[in-house]
Design a protein that fits this description.
single chain, 351 residues, alpha/beta, QueA-like, Thrombin, subunit H, nine-stranded mixed β-sheet, six-stranded antiparallel β-sheet, 8 helices, 17 strands, globular
């Protein structure tokens, strides 16, 4: 992993801000891509307010857009314990070693002792056993594979700040149009704004588009619980970068184009596989790279992202790329102008 982080200590409160709850988007925009776009330019210190469709104005024919093609699993099951109490279970796939292994997080697991039988929809039941690390394991009575059970009765794992149950629209809208590879428990939300027609418009301008895979797990959204951010440890997540993508990045740099990442997960994948010369190495494996100020970026030149939770690893990555004070100023302006925040909210382009 990269060594571009200095020993300067930063406190978690330096990444805090106050957001009115009314600005947390509870539903996606009526049509995909009909969202606002804040454009921030690091070099000029400028902030522009546009529509997401205007993102075309900031790409050039030499540029490369990099997407994360992971697909969100319907990884949340709702069941009942033998006592009759409601039980919510989030399944976490293992990508390190045996890909058939699953761990679970259980809402209200502190009340569960030993092995507990859980009954789910369609007559499916299993035995839950909690481990000492706060995760558990479920053995289903049927021989059906867990992936099959999730596809049959699973719910889309919407973030906890969306205060409603998942609905049929979330199967489509909490998924990018280019999702290809099952494996995430959260969406790469910067990608939710892109449409097939927008991709065609980018290609018509000569912009190249390529994909990597980072399967989003608890590492991306786990809260920072230490005061000095450098002491936070990211849980590892699975990354794959093809030889074709590595070649396209190298060619983009050679011709003087910009590599623009769609999302913080794409950014972490590319920076994790940096070859130290502006390109990336192809390959696959786990990354626990935690990007926070001050970090020297090696691969990306621009970043499309959403607005992130205060004190989260995501806002720290954004602050590392655009500068903490500039980011906090931009967030203040976004609140004043009533941008919509978080997964189903509006977007930011950092140049």
């Amino acid at each position: 992993m990269d060594g571009g982080i200095s020993s300067l200590k930063m406190r978690i409160e330096e990444f805090d801000y106050t957001l009115p709850p009314s600005l947390i988007a509870q539903y996606p925009s009526p049509q995909r891509g009909e969202t606002r776009l804040m454009v921030v330019n690091r070099n000029h210190g400028t902030i522009e307010h546009r529509q997401f469709s205007n993102i075309l104005d900031y790409f050039h024919s030499e540029d490369l857009l990099v997407l994360n093609n992971t697909r969100v699993l319907p990884a949340r099951l709702i069941g009942k314990k033998e006592t009759g109490g409601r039980c919510e279970i989030l399944f976490l796939p293992s990508w390190n070693g045996n890909q058939g292994e699953w761990k679970v997080l259980v809402k209200g697991s502190g009340k569960i002792k030993g092995r507990t039988r859980i009954r789910f929809e369609d007559g499916i039941d299993g035995e839950l056993e909690m481990g000492k690390d706060g995760t558990g394991k479920i053995d289903f009575s049927s021989q059906t594979e867990i992936m099959g059970i999730l596809q049959k009765i699973g719910h889309i794992p919407l973030p906890p700040y969306i205060k409603r149950e998942d609905a049929s629209l979330d199967r489509d809208r909490y998924q990018t149009v280019y999702a290809e590879r099952d494996g995430s428990i959260a969406a790469p939300t910067a990608g939710l704004h892109f449409t097939d027609s927008l991709f065609q418009s980018l290609r018509d301008r000569g912009v190249s588009i390529t994909k990597i895979t980072l399967h989003i797990g608890i590492g991306t959204f786990a809260p920072v619980k230490v005061r000095e951010v450098e002491n936070h440890s990211m849980a590892a997540e699975w990354v794959e970068i093809s030889e074709e993508t590595a070649r396209e990045i190298k060619e983009t740099k050679k011709r003087g184009g910009k590599v623009i990442a769609a999302g913080t997960t794409t950014t972490r994948a590319l920076e994790s596989f940096s070859d130290g010369t502006g390109g990336v190495k192809s390959g696959k494996g786990m990354t626990s790279l935690f990007i926070h100020p001050p970090y020297r970026f090696h691969v990306i030149d621009g970043l499309v992202t959403n607005f992130h939770l205060p004190q989260s690893t995501l806002i720290m990555l954004i602050a590392a790329f655009a500068g903490r004070e500039f980011v906090m100023k931009a967030y203040k302006e976004a609140i004043e102008r009533k941008y919509r925040f978080y997964s189903y909210g509006d977007a930011m382009l950092i140049l």
